[in-house]
Every structure is written in structure tokens, then in C-alpha cells.
User: Fold these one by one.
Assistant:
Number 1:
Amino acid sequence: MAGNSFGNVFRITTFGESHGQAIGVILDGCPAGIPIDISEVQAQLDRRRPGQNDLVTQRQEKDEVHILSGIFEGKTTGTPIGMILYNIDMRSTDYDNLKNLFRPGHADYTYFKKYGIRDHRGSGRASARETAARVAAGAIALKLLAYYNIKITGYLISIGTIKAVEREISIIEQNKVRCPDVNAAKKMETYIQELKDAGDSAGGVIEVIAKGVPPGLGEPVFDKLSADLAKAMMSINAVKGVEIGDGFACTELKGSENNDSMLSDGFATNHAGGILGGISTGADIVVRVAVKPASSIAKTQNTLDIQGNRVEFSITGRHDPCVAIRAVPVVEAMMAITLADHLLRNRLSRLSDM
Amino acid sequence: MAGNSFGNVFRITTFGESHGQAIGVILDGCPAGIPIDISEVQAQLDRRRPGQNDLVTQRQEKDEVHILSGIFEGKTTGTPIGMILYNIDMRSTDYDNLKNLFRPGHADYTYFKKYGIRDHRGSGRASARETAARVAAGAIALKLLAYYNIKITGYLISIGTIKAVEREISIIEQNKVRCPDVNAAKKMETYIQELKDAGDSAGGVIEVIAKGVPPGLGEPVFDKLSADLAKAMMSINAVKGVEIGDGFACTELKGSENNDSMLSDGFATNHAGGILGGISTGADIVVRVAVKPASSIAKTQNTLDIQGNRVEFSITGRHDPCVAIRAVPVVEAMMAITLADHLLRNRLSRLSDM
Amino acid sequence: MAGNSFGNVFRITTFGESHGQAIGVILDGCPAGIPIDISEVQAQLDRRRPGQNDLVTQRQEKDEVHILSGIFEGKTTGTPIGMILYNIDMRSTDYDNLKNLFRPGHADYTYFKKYGIRDHRGSGRASARETAARVAAGAIALKLLAYYNIKITGYLISIGTIKAVEREISIIEQNKVRCPDVNAAKKMETYIQELKDAGDSAGGVIEVIAKGVPPGLGEPVFDKLSADLAKAMMSINAVKGVEIGDGFACTELKGSENNDSMLSDGFATNHAGGILGGISTGADIVVRVAVKPASSIAKTQNTLDIQGNRVEFSITGRHDPCVAIRAVPVVEAMMAITLADHLLRNRLSRLSDM
Amino acid sequence: MAGNSFGNVFRITTFGESHGQAIGVILDGCPAGIPIDISEVQAQLDRRRPGQNDLVTQRQEKDEVHILSGIFEGKTTGTPIGMILYNIDMRSTDYDNLKNLFRPGHADYTYFKKYGIRDHRGSGRASARETAARVAAGAIALKLLAYYNIKITGYLISIGTIKAVEREISIIEQNKVRCPDVNAAKKMETYIQELKDAGDSAGGVIEVIAKGVPPGLGEPVFDKLSADLAKAMMSINAVKGVEIGDGFACTELKGSENNDSMLSDGFATNHAGGILGGISTGADIVVRVAVKPASSIAKTQNTLDIQGNRVEFSITGRHDPCVAIRAVPVVEAMMAITLADHLLRNRLSRLSDM
């Protein structure tokens, strides 16, 4: 009810603030018998962690994961998996001047109005640091999906107005912006460096694809696979839009153009992005996610303080000039968790021999 | 779990197939004391009902609502509100030739793969007829919101490539396409008539605005107001994309452009669409929804039958050439239900004097 | 959240008041493929219905069930099953003198304090009439369980201080009090008739057994099978106690007496009532349920009215002198629903070949 | 879904195994603004902890609680409260001889059948050690309840066949068996010592009372306060029965005896245990809980091993001769959590001025 859980069967509950003791996640409903090597969880966290290159925040967090429960002799036992990451490299004093301000684009004002109280240090619970807990749980989801030969890949297809034309999957992790187009990647890197120097920030669009998803996943009418993916993505910090398959572009097509014809070996096209009637078709699941430019910028801004006075301020902490880059593994994790949940839920759809 | 419920506190469960006995909804968690006049529920259903003009399906359903429970002496009692609409004007034989086919763009194939069985008549449960139940529940939500001075308005801002420039709210219900731009509306009407004649269909984009929403609604980190709105919208038949505020367009802005500055009388701009950190800011909530062109078209198409044979067929039932038109009250209903749910959930955020 | 739903996977939502239009239930999460004959549902309702013999309420309700959705060509489709029963033989005027009173033992006072409003006619939502909806859904659960060879039997083991010694299952439905002991049954019948004549009422204890339940059902640590059964039973009108296996009596045993030894063909004893660590063992599930004497009695009583005045009154409606008799099929239904839910949930516990 | 969460609004999720790294709890939905001193949480844990006197297990765990999140400057912030207790004094080798056995009365067999895998060390997740996490969360619930002047007291009213006659609340924590009757307490202490020496164990009945609960708590028809309390209690290790008010005894009364008459200053009697129609009446909430004799006994027993061979064994670990003693704070905690949840849920029942 209070909103810190996601998923029905494969269900995560995250906790922790950016500058508190630790952040973490409890994963309940993971089936017994999945082999888990902690290094696989750590590897995903390393893809998200701060300080990984010079285009992301320079906060130095190793984000070392500790598994507290739910795994015995290298396998999941069916009991809840608890994982925590201690907060190490905090500079809470960076936030002293922001304590009584409502930073534009941030959750400062809304948390204050909602709870009457807020942990201002590093945005507290509203910090994107919370997404590390999602990535840890997502790593377990990926293991479950891998067992059923489902694979997820995310990447940036635009930053600002620079758009990727190519989809060369093999190069994604070889550039600093996780872009599958080598030319676009170069331009993006330059653009972000410029914005960083100017104390500004950029937005971007992430595309994420799941291959190998069997038909049948998704629970009509409200828990459609598309609906749960939309929620999963929109729950990520800074996300302002989600589309499936052709998304907004399909509104310009005619029905005769948009309908994907069925062939004996699959669909002739995939305008639908792998989902019809809210249920997976067996074709690739294709989702695109709009990430706004980071709200934390060094440029001087105007805002109100808690007393309602108009004040001028600038943010001096260590921040991402383009949060979309580090959001890629988060988007993958949320897709993995959503698919794992629906994969399990789909076991319930028919009478069977148990 | 099986997906036919939406909302946490203000929670609806819908049931019923297009060509079964009836469709309906149980609304649980509606607070006691709301005055309800059945004519207000009926009025919303009339806005969604088939046959309302010549650009929508000609199935003749009066969609007369029956309230079975939960209201006593004109007021809600806090017990579940049951509402049903009988199916009257069914022509199930229209579907005889489709019984063993998987219509492209439809849920035929996916339901069959999921359940191993399906009610093929009029798409069964996958029919957009189910959304009438949402509109009935939405009418109650609107009453609750009205008590707190919250108002919701939806309209079409594009059909195919025709886009509305104006936002003249007063004319929305005065044209057949619910468009707030009189010139665009005319072009849209003509375009739909052409498609209808050609046995084809059009998609469109709906914009929906909520005014008067207090700050504080939304439950971080997963049940963000934006996340729940995204799910609400994406759960509607034919929807393939959702965005909040500037949505995908904000990815092209810089942080310094996208951040909404705070003034003493509110926000200087509303790029955020009224939501920051997943919580309402007090500014207008702005959501846009991409509706694909209807999959049911009269044009001859190719597909597979249940045996895997490639077959040619055409659809002869009565269908909407542009489902986005009748989706407007559905989008409003889903927003109303989501806001009603979060309005109530927000009562739980603080210690209070009960 | 508002409490009118039960079950997680196999989930029912009931609605309706005693003197409203209808009562009903939506069953969501029933797997596709179960053959359902409406007469089987009706047969269970007939076991619960008013007027079935002279020791129960003489309200004449046929309780004819209407299935509105979810079944196609005689089988469940995986979509929600909607069922309603219209209220026919209402005498709302019987309640006119009770309109402003809080009847002792009833929910009048508590509903009024909770909601500030109440439907006083026949106890409204608090009426045991609501349990008919549970029995209808329970009939579907029984079909699911039967497919897996699970069988449920309930009966009265005491009324007042008269206790059954024998457990002759075959005679349960052959006496008016559903007692498996022919001698006790006769005494019970006489006792109830005496109380009825005296304008009073009797309580009783129901025992219910499930045979054929496989080991593994129940989800530690909170959704233990025992915990969910306890909730299921305690949610039934007039129930004030629940025990599993030896229950309260086992507190007088030593561990060495109470531990059920394992043999190669099962357990040597069944003090545990078929549940260990909250999970079924494969032995019979044994539950006992305490049902209080009906609160509606013809005898003159004292109470308060809404203004706080002390008043004398007597109840003239048609009521059960011993609600435990008609509660037997309700107890069976709630056990069936709980087991069906856990049978399905247990599909999720392990990695499998899907 | 997987069962490790309890509560709807005030919701806990526990994790951890007896011999793993740590056990813990995430409390989501705790309102902002409650002052929390960690020593208050620790004080409750100290009442439950092993080794507190010579009649309980001698495992030496300080059970020191660490609060990881959700509290800022001494107050709850509305974000999830994470708390962990590291496992320190484990002797996992004590369990080596039990690795391939199914101990009678334990969850060994059922976990193995459910998950196909189990952490055998100290019963793993099935250990009563998990209840420490409940007590930690319960301490926060008690703080919330205290703000609204609700107070909870639990104690033992019987061990074996020794029953308390008095209810002298002030002496409960002054004897080793938490009994409110000084004479009974002495007999109980002697009896437990005898059983301990004999390698056996005793059961008992706990009574728990909540004073100051306002009328209106409980959500009909399934989430009745009585139903949720029954589930809460039955979810505790070793509990086999629950009753409200007079419970099983009320089945022997007549309606005219059992109905609690209303007076201008409250109820004349409290047979109902403070709950009518599933909703609190304002009178004391009275619940009794049957705790079975501990399954871990030193006496030689027979059982099966994983291969199905009949084997003789005895348990050498450090165990409680009467788990009911340390279960008292657990029962209180579960009542506190249930009441906190319903106190908050009841904010949703009416239209209000928000």
C-alpha cells in the first residue's frame, strides 16, 4: 500500500535513503532451486554504479552487495532473499545549503507536502540511489529468465536531439553512453561533456528488448503485460514516457498498416512490440522509455524556500549530467522483474497436472 | 492476481464478456457518504456507448446500468458497489467465420495460447466492451473527486497525422471526434469517414488533464502517481504509449529548460505535468495516451487458423473506425479511479488526530 | 483493502445486502478448463438456503444462482466468473422498529460508528445472507479440488453442551442438524426446538476435514495454511474461535505426546491436524470452528437507540435458532476456497519446466 | 504472494534464517512523524530474546537491532523502516545429525516437500527466531498505538493443565513464565523445570488484551478485525488455536446469555471480546492463543530420513521447554501490528474533509 513493493508473485520491496545507513531489497516469491553466484549480482550493480566513467556522477560507491538470506549452498531456497548495500561515500554537508529549499525538478516540495518531514540529504528516499536495490533484485530475475532462455538488452537510442540509427548490440557496453550506434555515440559523448561543462544536463530515450518470451504472459484486463511494463518503467526516477512497439508513432498508421500479419513462422512485422490484448505474442517485447534531463544542475536557479521566499541557489554535489546512461541497467532490471513475475503468474492460468 | 482488479483502496473488479449475459464491476473501498444519482453514472456511459454517432460502431447498446448494492437512500454506505449492464444487441453469428482464426492485431492468438480456450464471440473478455464497466466505476470516482474540487477533461489531440492546435475545451463534446480544435475536428471527421468507407481504421492521441489535484498524491517508490497513471492508461484496449507532461519531448530539452521554476503562486511552467518524484505538485496533471488504429477492419487480410494454415478473411461485424473517440471517457474514468485511489491513500501518510 | 475480497490467486469478491437488489460474487483467478454445471453450484446453495427445514429461518429464498460470465461452452475460460442471486422474499418492514436501535450482539452499532450510515434492513451487508455468495464460489473451488482428488466434509460436533461422540459421515445430511452422531442429533433437534419456542438461540461447534490434500500447501511465514484457514473461518458471521488439529487441547499435552511420529505410510497420529510449519503434511486437514448463538432472538432485550436512550425491544423477523446448522456449507466453502488458493499458489514454489 | 508479508497499510515483510547472516524486517506504510527511540525497540526484543532466564533456550543472542532506514532525526519519515539483527551465537553443527531427518512436529518434511530444498540449520526459515523481526516491527506499532492511547498486554493463562485464576497484571513480568497469578506461576515454573529435566516440553495458552481501541476498526466482510487477528496469531510458530472473547465457551451459552447488553457507559458484559460484525466495539479486545508444546525435545524419538528409512534420534541443540513464554511479546507484537493496520485502514471509511 505504501508503494515500496513491486510485483505480485516475484515481489520486491526496497528500502533505504541515499545518505542513510544502507539501501536494500527483499525479494519474496523467488522460486527455489535457482543457482545464484553473488558475483553475477555484483556485475549488474557495477554497470549501474556511480563513478564508472567521467560522464557520470563521481560519487565513489563500490556498491558491494551483501546477501543476508534466502540462498543456501548456492541456490535459492524459496524463502525471501535479503540484500543490502551500505552507503559509504556520502557528503551530507553538500546538502546543507539545500536543506530549506525546494529544488526545481526534484521531489523536495512534494515529499514535504506529503509527509510534513523529509530527509534532505542527497534527496533521501527520492534519490536514484534507490534503483541500485532494483538492479540487485533484477540480477536474480535475469537468472530465472535465463533458465527459460529469455534475454534482455537495453541501450540509449537518443540523447537530446542526437538519435541512434544503427542497432549494433555488440558495441553497447563499449562506449560511455551505452549507444548501439558508433557515430551517434561519439556525438552523444561530446554533447554530454559540453553540458557538464556548462553545468547543465541532458535527457534521452532508452530502448529495451526482451527476446525469447513465450506467448501467454500478461493478465487481462488490468495487469496486462504492457500495463505492468508501463508502470515498471514509469516508476523509475526521471522517467516521463513509455511506449510499447511502435507506440506513439502507430497512431499515424492505418489499421491495415499496423496489424501484424501472422505467418507460419511468426509475425511478418512487429508493430505491436510483442504484446496483443495485453498478453505476449512470442515476438520480441519492445519498450521505449523517455528519461528527462537530470534536475540537479550546477547552473544558478531560482526557487522557493520552506518559508515561501524566493531564493537563488546552485547545486554543488556530484551529479550525473545524463542519468539515462546509468538508467539502462535499471530499465533492464525492471523489465526482468516484470517478466519474471508474469512468467510465474502464467503458471496459474490453466487446469494442469500440477 | 488474475488481473481483473485495479486500485488499492478505491478498487474495481470488472467482469463479463462482450457476448455473454452481462458485463459489470464491483467497486470496493468507496467511502461512505457520497451522494450518487444513477443518472450521473448513466450519463458517463452514454458518452462511451456504441451507436452514439455515425463515426463509431453501430452496435445498438443502450448500456443501461443497474446498481445492485452499496447505495442506500441515495448515498454510498461503504460497502461494495455492484453495477451491471446486460448485453442486448449481440450478433454472435457475425463471428462464426472467425471462430478458428487468429485475427491480426487482436488478442485471439494470445488468449488461446494463454488459456487453451477462448470465447471467440465479439472478442469475449478482450473486447473493448469491458471498458463500459470502467466508465461506470469512473462515474463514482468522479463524484468523489468533485467533492474535493478535482475536475478531469479528456479530448483527442490527433487522429492519424491530423493534429489539434487549439485547446478549446467548450467545443469538445460538440463534434463527433471530441477534438478541442474546430478546424482539426472537421478534418478528422472527414478522414475517419474516408477510412470507414475504405474498410480501414485510424489511431489517435488522447490528452487528459486533471485540475485541482492537491499536492501529495502518489506513493513512492513504485506506486508513483505517474506509474499508476501509466498502468491505468496502458491497461485500456488499444493503448500503446503513455506520457506525463512533456513526456518524450522533454528528452530533447536541457535540465535548465525542463526544470519548472517555483513562484510564490505556483510553478512558472509545467513541463513535469504536475508530478515530481512520483507525487502530485498541485499543478495540472497532464497525461497523453497513444491509441492504435482499431484492429478490426473490413479490408481483406491474411492470417493463420488454429491448425496453422494460412487463410484469407475479412471482418463483417460492426466496428469503430477510430476507437480513440469512444476511448476518451474511458481514459477520463481510469484517471478518475487512479486519482480517487491516491487521494484516499494519501490519508495514510502522516500521524494525525484521526 | 476494503475487505470484501478473499484469496490471492483464487480470489473472490462478494457484494450485496440482505434487502438490496441482489447479492453476488466475482471469482477471479479460476484456471481455465474446469467443467462447470450450474446445477452443481445450485446444489451447494440449496444446502445453505433459508427455509430448508423447520429448525432454520423461514425466509423463503430459492437462492437461484445466475452465472453472468467466465464460463463458455460448459468450461471455465480463465476470465472472472460473475454470479448473482436476486433477493426475493424480503420483508423490510420487519426491521422498521429496529431502524434506530443497536441490537445487542449485532453489527448495528459498529457499522454505524464506522461508516456513519447503515442499511438497517435485515442487517444489510452484515447479514449472514452474504455467505450465499461464498457458497457459490466455494462450489467452483470444490470442482477444482475434486480434479485433484481433494474432498471436504463438514458437520456439527456440538450444539450447546450436547456433543457428538460418533463420526458417522454418511448420516450428516440425513438429520436437520448436520450431526454425524445419530443420538446426539436427536437431542440437538429437541434442544433447538425448545430454544426456538422460548425465543432463544444456540451455538455450536463445526468440524471440517479435508482429505487428499497433498503436502506442500501453505506459504510461510504469514500465509501459513493454518493462518489462512483461521482467517477464512473467523471471517464467517458468528464465528468466535478456530483451532487446527488438537487445537486448545494440545496445550495440555507434552511434546513427546503431541509430536506425530512418521511412519513409512504416513503419520502415526494427527495431533497436528495435517499442518506443520504452516504447510500441509499430506495427512487430513482438521479444523474446528466455534459458532456463537445467533444474536437475533425473539426474547425481549434492552439496548440503546441512536440517541443514546435505553430502550426495550424484541425482534420479530424470521431467524435461525442455531445458525451453525446452515453455516456448515459455508465453512466447507471457505475451506475449499482457501485450499484452492493454496493449491494454485504452490505451483509457484520451485523452478520447473513450466 | 509468497507469504512473508503481513498487513495492508501498516505492512511488514520479514526475512532471514536462524543460522544465516541476519534476520530482519521491512516495515512499509508507517506514517511519518512518530518519534522512535531505538531503545524502545530493543526493550521489546529483550523480552523475547533467548537466554533471558533458565526456563528458556540458552542460545545466547543479544538480538541487537540495527535500524537502517526510515527514521530521520528521531522520527519516522513515511519511508520504509528497515531493521536487522545479525545472527551471532549459532552452533550449526548441532544440526549435522538432523540434516537428513524429518523431525516430528517440525517443518522439516513440509519444507522439503514444498521447495525440494531446505536450510536444515536451526530450522532455517521455519525457526521461531523469525519472530524477533515481528517484535521489532511490533515495537513501532506499539508507538503508533500509544499515540492514540491504545495499550496491549499479554500473559500466560495456562501451561499444561495448570491454569491461572487471577489476572494480576502488575506481576506478569516478575515471574519467569509471564503469568498474572502468583500461585499458578510457581506451579508452572516447577512443572517446566521437571519437563526440561525429562527432556520434554509443555504447551500453554496466552491471553492478550487491547485497551482503548476505538469503535470502527475492522473491514467487513473478509478482513474483519477478528479474522485478521486470527490470521496474525495462527501465523506464529506453534500456534494451533485462536479465540475471541468467550470463544469456544460461548457455543455453550444461549443467545440471551451471550448477547452483551448496551448501557449508556458501554457494554454490560464482554462475551464478544470487543468485536461485533468483525468491527471493534470500543470494549476491550480479548484474544486467546493456544501454543503447542515445543517439538524440539531431548527425548529419543523415531522418524523417517530423506530416503524413507525409519530412524531413531534425539535433539541436542539448545531449546525452549515451553515456547509459550517467549511467545508472549510475539503475540503482543502481532496484535499491535494488526491494530495499527486497521487503525489506519479505518481512516478510509468515510467521506471527510481530508
Note: The CA atoms of residues 95 and 121 of chain B lie 6 Å apart.
Number 2:
Amino acid sequence: MVTDVEKNLVIGIDIGGTGTKIGIVDARGEILARDEGIATASYATFEEFVDAMNDVIKRLITATGSEGRIRGVGVGAPDSNFYTGNIEHAFNLPWKGVLPLADMLSKKSGIPVYVTNDANAAAIGEMTYGTAKGMKNFIVITLGTGVGSGIVINGQLVYGCDGFAGELGHVTMVRGNEGRMCGCGRRGCLEAYCSATGVARTAKEMLVSMNEPSMLRDIKEITSRDVYEAARKGDKIALEIFEKTGTMLGEAIADFIAFSSPEAVILFGGLARAGKYLLEPLQKAVDKNILHTFKGKAKILVSKLRDSDAAILGASALAWE
Amino acid sequence: MVTDVEKNLVIGIDIGGTGTKIGIVDARGEILARDEGIATASYATFEEFVDAMNDVIKRLITATGSEGRIRGVGVGAPDSNFYTGNIEHAFNLPWKGVLPLADMLSKKSGIPVYVTNDANAAAIGEMTYGTAKGMKNFIVITLGTGVGSGIVINGQLVYGCDGFAGELGHVTMVRGNEGRMCGCGRRGCLEAYCSATGVARTAKEMLVSMNEPSMLRDIKEITSRDVYEAARKGDKIALEIFEKTGTMLGEAIADFIAFSSPEAVILFGGLARAGKYLLEPLQKAVDKNILHTFKGKAKILVSKLRDSDAAILGASALAWE
């Protein structure tokens, strides 16, 4: 039996539109127990969903004998506000309006709950357990269905005046009417080009504009994974797609560096695994576009956290702060 | 005679390529005494220049009876590094290489010396004496010969990993080869369009591309001041120049807001005095380009510090920190 003072564990929860993952994590970043079985959209009300999370928390605590040892719960959730602990008008969750997540879950569980979006959670995760250990100034860019970012300056996550700072997926890269429509309703956002879905859009565009043969021409609904597989096999159009994507991401990163002069920019998420196909044009574009003052200073790195662990770890790290 | 413990005054020094200004400042931002007579470029060596500054400091202290009351000296200087106290490879100063400003001046004067660039000094000045009093998250954009910026997040100035963060004049606004050459050697920088010199360049460009009559056509070397005077008189091309400049600045600011979600963006320097001619298109472009999350949150403000005082006040504020 552990005593009440030894609160040396945290719980990480990653709330996604499809599934929600929960894990108990120790100070070294080991996940002692986990449950990835909550189907987010299957709960009619937000309170039922919170009850389901609370049940899993209780079960994991009992299973690991962690009673009294949980310091806090960190949650990564879309459109969530660190300051208020609320989820606010999330597009890809089934419940509308302002959802008092931290308040409701902490009352039910009896454990303090901290909330932020998944990109901020990734940044805290990198600082606590990952590539950014010991760094005071860095930017994490998450390359998934969308493009998100978590910015750390002077060792602190940047939340801004409202809790929502760090939306680098929505800086404008192509101005005017030729910019692609973005999910946010604007045009030309980084996310519309450099997310997994952006890569698939670029693929469709290039298959129309180029005449080269390509194995991508046989695929009905192209994904970024297909483009990666084709690039590995030397497919010219696939390589060109990554060249374009990496170049734009590098141009954007050169601007981000002019803002906060970080030690490192850390790429996180599925697309970051594209390796040299993405990283080589990206680094070239950073070097070409960066202001002389910053040349060669910020390292471009890829997260080393395992994909299957990263979401829980990132969220859990919030509870150590 | 004051006692040694009452260190309730600071000294502000603004080092410019042409002139250097020094003043003694109290906690309310009153300049008790000043000297604006140092001609920067007239000193053969950096050490002679530092000696000249030290002589002025001594004289101002004696004149105001401030012996023992000076808490510190804050210096705003081009290409200067807060962490090291050095000026590093400044383009528009006569001495080359790394100049140990803080070290040399503090040894000679016996007073602690803190150094940063003029845009950062402006941000600290706004926070201490100006429009940003009480704000924890804001961005100051200086619109002078160049475009500079000082970024405050969580109440701290952002210096980044190297002391040089906050070069928002050098984010790329026009990509590719059609971007204007910038003084930094790159193309399409915000500074190449939205500085005072950028406005003059836009004027020349528009006088060629438009056929409208304009009073600007009679001026040999157009300045941003000429454009302002013409706009006030209803000159169509002059109004169009400010429309273009304000729009681009607003587009850039919408991106900056996505980074740090500040309470306010404060415009500082000569061009900021163009009033509605610049501010109306600027605000319109911010509203049009901003991500829905941030709509209506960050205020666009103009510095209220008097131009003649701002440089000394901004630098002096560094010594209170």
C-alpha cells in the first residue's frame, strides 16, 4: 500500500473525434496501463462521456494499485482552453458549445484535471519525455489530418491572452484567390497544403497537371501514406509532391524562426515519418529562406516518441507542470 | 544629498547610426535631463564612443544631483544581444565585428548596463510607461526606416535561444522572384513594403503603373512623409499607397496573432502616425484574414509615447527589469 504523499504518477487522456485513449504514466514516461477502447462519438451527452472516462480512470488505478498516487490528469482535446479547462465549440466532437471538461472530470474523479489542445500537449510531452528535454525555446509542429503547433518560449508553453495561441497551421502561405480553401473557412493556410489531407490534395492536383506515369494514378482515394509508399519506390510524381510539401513547410518554418528564434523545430505526427522525402526539401527551404541572423541555429528534428504512446504521454505531461 | 540605497532612477541610451541620445528617467517615465548631441559616426574607435557616452552620463548625473541613485543603464542599439550585452556585426554603425557594449560601459561608469535592440526597447517602454501597461501578451511593431518588432509573452520579452528573436520585419509576404529585394539580402520581406522606405518604393512603383494625376509626380525623391501629406489632401495615388501598405501589414499581423494570440498589437514609429490612411485598411485586412478563433480579440493600437521621448524611455525601461 502506498502512502498518500507519494503522488508520483499522472494520467494522460487523448480525446479524438473517433477514439479516446487513457493511460497511467510514471515520471520516466513509461505507460503503466492503458485503455484505448472509448468510442468518443458513441455517447449521447458529454456527461455520459465524462462518466465513461472516469470509469476507465478508476479501473486503471485499481488494476495498477495506484490509489492515492495520481498527481493529476492531463487531457489533450480539440479546441480546448488551458485557462478555463473547457472545450469550446469543437468541430469534430459530437457535443456542441462550451464543455466544462476539467471541472466535470475533476469533480467526478477527485483528481485535478488540466486541459489543452493536442499540439500543445505534444510540445509538453516532448519537453518532459522527448526530444525537447532540457530545451527552453522550441516549436512542435504536428503534421496529421491538420497542422497544429505547440510553442515553448522561456520554458513556458505559449497560450496567449485567450488560451488558444499557436495556430501555426493557419498562417497564410498562398495569398489571394489562388489559395486553397482550408477547413477553417479561409484560403491558402499552411494546413491546406502541408497536412496529410493537404498532401493528398496536392497529389490530385499534380496528377492532373503532369503527364508522367505514376502508380498513384491507379488509386481511387489517395492518402498521404500512398504518396509515401510511391515515393519509396521512386515514383516521380510522388517525389515531386513531397518536394513541394517540404519546400512550403520549410518556408513557413523560416518565418516561425524569425518570430521566436527557437533552438529546434520538432516535427510530430504521421507525415513527419516521411523521412528524407519531406525533410530534405524542407531543410533546403529553411536554409534558403531564413534571415542571416538565424542561419544554422534552429535544428529541424523529428519526434522520437512512439506514435502509439505520444498522445497519452503528451497529455499526461501537462499534469506534472 | 541622497543616500546610496535610493536607486530610483534609470538611464536610457538610444544608439542610432547617426545620433546617440542619453537621458535620465524616473519611475513615472519623466525624462529629468537629456543629451542628444553625440554624433555616433564621428568616433574613430568604439572605445572612444563609449568614453563619450560615459562623459555624458557623468555630466547628466552631476547636473541632476543623481549620484548614487542610478539603478542601471538600458541601451537600445542595432543588432545587439540582450544575453551577451554585445553589439554584433551592426550594418549601420561605423565599427565592425562584436562590440562588448555592456561590459565596457559598465566598467567605465560603475553602473550595470543592459542592452537590446530598439524594437525590443520600444516593447519594454510600452509595457513600463506606455500603452501596454498591465498587458502580459502583446507585440510592438516599429515602422521606421525598417520594420522591427518586440514581442512580449507571459509578461516577458521574447529573446529566443540566441537573443535575436522577434524579426517580424523579415517574414516573407511576397514569395518567389516577384518579391522586392530587401536590405537583408532576401526577397519579399514585410520590411521591403511596410517601412517608410517601402512606402516610398510603392509610391515610385504606382506612379509608373497608374495614369492618374498626382502631386507626388512633382517630387524628385519621394518620402513616406510626402505620401502622407498628399493623402491628407485627397491625392488618389497617395491614398492607394496607404491602402496597399495597410492591407499587407494587416495580413502579416493576422499571422502574428495566430502565433502568440496577443491582447494588442501596438504600432510605433513615424509611419504609425499616418492615422486612418494606414489604420483603416490595416484593420480591415486583419478582420478579413484572421482565424475565427482570434476574431475581435487583439486590439490594434498606436503608441502614445512622444516620438522625441520614446527611444530614451524604451531603452531606460530595460534597466528597471
Note: The mean pLDDT of chain A is 94.
Number 3:
Amino acid sequence: MADEALFQFLHSEIIQYVNSAETGESENGRCVSKLENMGFRVGQGLIERFTKDTPRFKDELDVMKFICKDFWTSVFKKQIDNLRTNHQGIYVLQDNKFRLLTQLSAGKQYLEHAPKFLAFTCGLVRGALSNLGVKSIVTAEVSVMPACKFQVMIQKI
Amino acid sequence: MADEALFQFLHSEIIQYVNSAETGESENGRCVSKLENMGFRVGQGLIERFTKDTPRFKDELDVMKFICKDFWTSVFKKQIDNLRTNHQGIYVLQDNKFRLLTQLSAGKQYLEHAPKFLAFTCGLVRGALSNLGVKSIVTAEVSVMPACKFQVMIQKI
């Protein structure tokens, strides 16, 4: 419980700080991209530790399953609720109660703030995948809080 | 293990980001004070959760012991190694292997960077104490890494 709280509070502080530090015309975009970059580096670091003792992954799907189960549980204390793929390099990870959105009120008026609360995690996933040799673009969308979907588009090299 | 790593990586990202965002004449001072403020708010939040089910504290020393044992263990996975006081409102908390300094090389040339790595924690302690009704000033000093001492000066109201 302690650790979760620490992560959540730190995450909020970061959003608040980055949001206030990035002023200028395209501030919102820059804020989101800074947060995404932070997440990327943290994801890279974390996956190295997490996979230290795991056997080699069979394929891309195997990697995605690891992200949805082990990685997600370590960071967010629950698994991804649903993983779908078109078998052509697109994966959709659905979390029905995404931890970093649970502090936000569920009202529709807050939906516009959701990207700031998802950017770090998009980067986290992209960074983790990147260090497992999978290049990707990760986006997120929310329709009803606190449920949210992360879309991973694999970039074939 | 996962949680520790997450906290450490996030903490490093914050230092790096705040350090790069606060440019100007007195940049180093502002960086440290921003980090301290973040720590303060996180400390306030955490202590509320941690003390939800604990009995009321007897006195100031009782509060300090809680910080050194329970609070420190929750956040840094170990207790403070030594607590001293002059019984006149000054407490010195010594951590012989402070987690947030263990990533830094122990060379003397890095000592000047230590304040950035301690500011968040100073705020954390000040915030926690503040929400327990103890107003304080918290400073930190390092003589040999990764050992470090936090000095808490209670502000009598």
C-alpha cells in the first residue's frame, strides 16, 4: 500500500510540475511529450530489472503478455484486463480501473485532462518494449474513467 | 524490488527534469527548493495513509521514532540507523546507506551534487512531520557517501 501511494503521489507531483514548467504556445503538447519521455526512460530501466531472470521470449505476443501480466502487476498492482490484437502489429491493452486515473473524478469535464495522466504510462510501455527489442508507438484513450485503453503499434524495422 | 526501482528511477527523472527546467542565475537553489516542495507534499500525503490506523502519538520523540522506523521502512526499505537528540528540539537521523545516494559514485567529486539528491527527502520528512502537527526545518548533510545525516530542527509555535 505504501509503495502504491508513493508512486501515485510522485506521479501527480511530476504532472503538476511539468505542467507548470512548460509554458508557451504549445504547452500542453510539450508537457505530454516530456512526461512520455520520462516514462520511456523509467520503462527502460524497470524492464531490465524485471526480466533479469526470465527466460527468453518466444515472440512478440509473448512479450506483450509479459507486459500485460508481470510488468503491469509490478507497477500498477493489477493485470491488464483485456489484451486484443489484429495479429498485424496492433495490440490493444485495456485496463478497466487504471490506477493513475482513479484519483480523477469520473465526470466528463475532466476527460480533457486525461492525456496528461496517461502520457507517462505510454512512455513506460514504449520504453519497456524498446529494451525488449520491440519498437513501437503507444497511445492511450479514455472513454469512461477510470477505464482506459493503450494502443501499441509495432514498428517493423 | 519492483517498487523500489520504480521510486528510484522516478526520483532520478524528477531531479534531472527539475534541474534542466530551472535555468537562471540561482538555478541550483531553485532546483533544490522545488524538489523540497515536491517532497513536502508527498510526505503530507503519505503520512496520512501510514498513520490511518496507528494510535495517537505520546510526544514529539514518539513521532520521531515513527518517522525513523515505520515511515523510513515504507519509503526506503530500511530503518534509520541512528537517532540522536539534544532534547531541545534538534534531532539527527543518520542513514548509513541512504538508498537515493547508492546510485551515485562515492568519489568526493560528486559530493557537490548531493544536495539535489537529498532535497526531496528533506521535504518528505518536513511534510510528514507537518501533518503530524510538528513544524520543523529539515536539512541534510553527507560526509562520506552513501551515508547521510538529516537534521530536524523543531520550530516551537
Note: The mean pLDDT of chain A is 90.
